[in-house]
UniProtKB/TrEMBL annotation:
Its EC number is 5.3.1.8. Residues 5-105 form the Phosphomannose isomerase type I catalytic domain. Gene3D superfamilies: Jelly Rolls (2.60.120.10). One of its GO terms (biological process) is carbohydrate metabolic process. Coiled coil: none annotated. CDD domains: cupin_PMI_type_I_N_bac. Binds 1 zinc ion per subunit. Keywords: Isomerase, Metal-binding, Zinc. It catalyses: D-mannose 6-phosphate = D-fructose 6-phosphate. GO terms for molecular function: mannose-6-phosphate isomerase activity; zinc ion binding. Its cofactor is Zn(2+). This is Mannose-6-phosphate isomerase.
Length: 319
């Protein structure tokens, strides 16, 4: 069984730039490209298999038509995870995502818990993460009055930082930040503040304040991450997050390292360097920006070279 190498779906955004091309080699559609959906079964941007028996099929098609590749016992569900690389040339809108219950009722989708691994950050870069309101009344008043100076909470960031962003967290990437985002497969966003930007048609983008008031966690309680590091000959493996919907790992390879599957399938993106993946004595070249799924029939594999990868597996709520 071969790994499933994937072609990303690219999305233009008002806040995007050229980092996806400059840093990761994607063929972007314009100089304001904000997102590469590198592993996706979502209808708004499904990725396509490049190689092997399933070349030309989308990940969504394989999930339903070949459920054995994922040990998927319920093909009627949608593929539960989504991995993106985001290039924030400008600040993203300050936004919040709903949980499963609210999203199902109001949007017919999954909720959206996500996480960010910071790939690059310009000096002085920051993210918006949480808020300072102590009560629902204070939060609602700040939204109604546009009191962003007193409401929004910012955190300085650098490459290598990791943030867990559960549904209900007010958040945004700041200008000059590139991240790898691991999330539930959902495209439901409630925009709270867009810095009074005007789009190409001369209009401000819609805000969703009523929904934001209904789903935002008040008061904000950040989830602390506790990375666990395992070092061995040729590798450093860091568990960045173990969570209900997904688990996220950083693999740093310098030489050769052997892995065994810990879940029904594994999602992998190369974020730095080059090397090779060896499965069943077959070797596959790896370069920065490549993404793949290691499906259920692949029980073990070897990584060799000098490269860094972010991997993820489904959590219990995604199985």
């Amino acid at each position: 069984m071969a790994p499933l190498f994937l072609t990303a779906a690219l999305h233009e955004k008002i806040w995007g730039g050229t980092g996806l091309k400059d840093d990761y080699g994607f063929e972007i559609p314009s100089d304001h490209t904000g997102e590469a959906w590198v592993i996706s079964g979502h209808p708004n941007g499904p990725t396509t298999v490049q190689n092997g028996l399933y070349a030309g099929k989308t990940l969504a098609q394989l999930w339903t038509q070949q459920p054995q590749l994922f040990a998927n016992g319920d093909p009627k569900r949608s593929f539960p995870l989504l991995v993106k690389i985001l290039d924030a040339k400008q600040d993203l809108s300050v936004q919040v995502h709903p949980d499963d219950a609210y999203a199902a009722q109001h949007a017919g989708e999954l909720g959206k818990t996500e996480s960010w691994y910071v790939l690059a950050a310009k000096p002085g870069a920051k993210i918006y993460y949480g808020h300072q309101a102590s009560s629902q009344a204070e939060f609602d008043r700040a939204l109604d009055q546009g009191d962003w100076e007193h409401l929004l909470q910012t955190v300085p960031v650098k490459a290598g930082d990791f943030f867990y962003v559960p549904a209900g967290t007010l958040h945004a990437l700041g200008a000059g930040v590139i991240v790898l985002e691991t999330q539930q497969s959902s495209d439901v966003t409630y925009r709270v503040y867009d810095f009074d930007r005007i789009d190409a048609q001369g209009h401000q983008r819609d805000l969703h304040l009523a929904d934001a008031k209904a789903v935002t966690q008040v008061p904000f309680k950040p989830v602390k991450t506790n990375p666990q590091v395992e070092e061995g000959l040729g590798f450093v493996k860091t568990t960045l997050q173990v969570a209900p919907y997904f688990n996220v790992f950083l693999w740093q390879i310098d030489g050769q390292a052997h892995f065994q599957a810990q879940a029904p399938y594994t999602l992998v993106t190369v974020i730095e360097g080059s090397g090779k993946l060896i499965v069943d004595e077959q070797s596959y070249s790896l370069t920065k920006g490549m993404s793949m799924v290691l499906p259920s029939p692949i029980k073990e594999w070897t990584l060799a070279g000098q490269l860094t990868l972010v991997a993820s597996t489904p959590g219990p709520k995604a199985l």
